[in-house]
Design brief:
The chain is α/β, with parallel strands linked by helices and 312 residues long. It has two domains: 8-126, Nitrogenase molybdenum iron protein domain (Rossmann fold); 172-308, Nitrogenase molybdenum iron protein domain (Rossmann fold, 3-Layer(aba) Sandwich). 39% of the residues lie in helices and 16% in strands. The protein has twelve helices and 13 strands. α5 runs antiparallel to α6 (147-168) and α6 packs parallel to α11. The longest helix is centred in the middle third of the chain and has 22 residues, at 147-168. The radius of gyration is 20 Å and the shape is globular. It starts with 7 loop residues before the first strand and ends with a strand. 45% of the residues are buried.
Amino acid sequence: MVAPALRIISLLPSATEMVCAVGAAAELVGISHECDYPEEIRDRPVLTAARISPLGTSRAIDAAVRAVVHEALSIYAVDERTLGELAPDVIVTQDLCEVCAVSLDDVRSAVARLAHRDSVRIVSLSPTRLEHVWGDIQTVASALGRPQRGAEVRAELEARVRAIAERAAMATSRPRVVSIEWLDPIMLGGTWMPELIALAGGTPVGASAGQPAPTVTAEALAKLEPDVVVVKPCGFTLARTMEERGIIEETIAGAVSAAGSRIYVSDGNAFFNRPGPRLVESLEIMAACVHPELFEDFAVKHTAALHALPLR
């Protein structure tokens, strides 16, 4: 039985990928300014805008975000007029990070002013572990009338994860691995990042699965003595991250030089920090960093999203 067509708005990049993964791309009528994948959805009306500039340094962006939050303001604005004109049946948003996307409270406030607000279903996601992400795919699919497809997509993704973990289990070592969530100040990858590291055959250090990203000093980073450092700032493409190569080489690489760490830079915007289907590709990239001797195929596959810094 074919589910009736819905008018869907996604205000979260990872949710947009979920909507498309379960076959509902044609019903997506609006997106956020950060929704950029898959390519087919880029022509949809954009309903959000950032109140701070993304063009400054990591330090400047961090300061701007903290200032906005301190004033109890939202980091993102919602185009309520267009939202009303699109007359959505379902809005998918998040309740995890006020920096990542429009907050649930902002969406509720906007919907409260819509003429047909009683008929709008709000689906809010707040994953902190991999199992939550896979569960969110089923939640979104069910909300869109595609529960069976949601279960199939989840099973396919989990099977790919198991296959990678089985390959990683053949490694003779488990390197100590740190992932960098932000450059200045230095933040380590929490939530699902330690799980990705462990599945890739590494030992996560400095952060705990399911917990927020901790902020550390360069001295504290040095004390972790990582064998591998994966730098993938939240919201930054590989090219954007490399614009601050000086910080990576002087602060991060300088801190772990005594440990002789291998340092990789990757795309933290498309991968790693986007809790959707492409976390499996993120695991592939992580595996190529942690055990390059076992995962050369993934290094080749993700050449465009992975850069190894020369050893000092």
